[in-house]
Design brief:
By secondary structure, the protein is α+β, with helices and mostly antiparallel strands. It contains six helices and ten strands, in the order H-E-H-E-E-E-E-E-E-E-H-H-H-H-E-E. Helix 1 packs across helix 6 and helix 5 crosses helix 6. The structure holds zinc ion.
């Protein structure tokens, strides 16, 4: 599943091809995505200029002169920039055909992706309005994390994976950040001291920042998100390393299931 770093990489990859261009035609080949694509979208989008591309959580917002497109890659979606004449393949669900002769093509075998449009502040769209801060924003820090976790009896790993608290911290990044901060995933959120919240917020920023950097270097003219984790395997400390030696202390990495997701941690480095 594309995680925040892959979505950021996709947004950065398509941005230079889209910004400043006009939509010659928006062709929807399959309306049945996670939510049905509005029937009036092609006519609405036609001949609008694209003013920018940005990411919010795991959504990509394409700003237009008179509104916006709100897109999600779902579980298996990817975006490619192709010459508009390129033959379509199975699971290609929509094309944003540009005046440059190129097209932004969306492919998604499982059809959990989405495409919405509208005008005004996209931030108040039902899919976005209840989301917490971006992990890489200044507003997300140790003070915020400490304040928000007081009285919360939920496990800290589940707390940081909840998008109301902070967006985009998927399973891999939650496990890796907790290891780097030296905190056990099953600790209750409100048991964390202020200094631990500072360490954890910093670890989340560092893990995601590193993954975004890799995403940006491994993908060039191919802009896509095929579910590859943004971190290189050799840089993972705990994720999917059950039974292997901890890179810091040599103890065997432990595995448990937490909230129906696999959790990995070191019993001696994390307290
Ligand atoms: Zn260890």
């Amino acid at each position: 599943m594309p995680e925040l770093p892959e979505v950021e990489t996709t947004a950065r990859g398509i941005m230079p091809h889209l910004t400043g261009r006009w939509i010659r035609r928006l062709a929807v080949h399959e309306r049945r995505l996670r939510w049905p694509v509005a029937a009036n979208l092609p006519r609405w989008a036609k001949d609008q200029q694209i003013t920018g591309v940005r990411r919010r959580a795991k959504y990509i917002v394409v700003d237009l002169e008179r509104g916006w497109l709100l897109t999600h890659l779902g579980m298996s979606g990817s975006m490619l920039i192709l010459p508009a004449s390129t033959a379509r393949e199975t699971h290609d669900h929509y094309d944003v055909i540009l005046d440059s002769g190129w097209t932004l093509r969306f492919n998604d075998p499982r059809r959990f992706g989405s495409l919405h449009h509208g005008t005004g502040d996209v931030g108040i769209h039902p899919l976005l309005r209840d989301l917490g801060p971006e992990p890489l924003d200044r507003s997300f820090d140790g003070d915020y994390l400490h304040y928000m976790t007081r009285g919360k009896r939920v496990a800290i790993k589940l707390a940081i994976m909840n998008s109301h608290l902070v967006v985009g911290v998927g399973n891999i990044y939650a496990s890796e950040a907790l290891f780097r901060a030296g905190i056990r995933p099953e600790r209750t959120a409100d048991s964390l001291e202020h200094v631990e919240c500072v360490a954890l917020a910093a670890a989340i920023k560092s893990v995601l920042g590193m993954a975004i950097e890799h995403g940006g270097t491994t993908l060039r003219d191919y802009v896509g998100a095929g579910g590859e984790p943004g971190l290189f395997r050799q840089e993972l400390f705990v994720y999917e390393r059950a039974g292997e030696a901890c890179r810091q202390c040599g103890a065997a990495i432990k595995h448990k299931v937490q909230g129906q997701r696999s959790t990995y941690f070191c019993g001696s480095c994390q307290r």
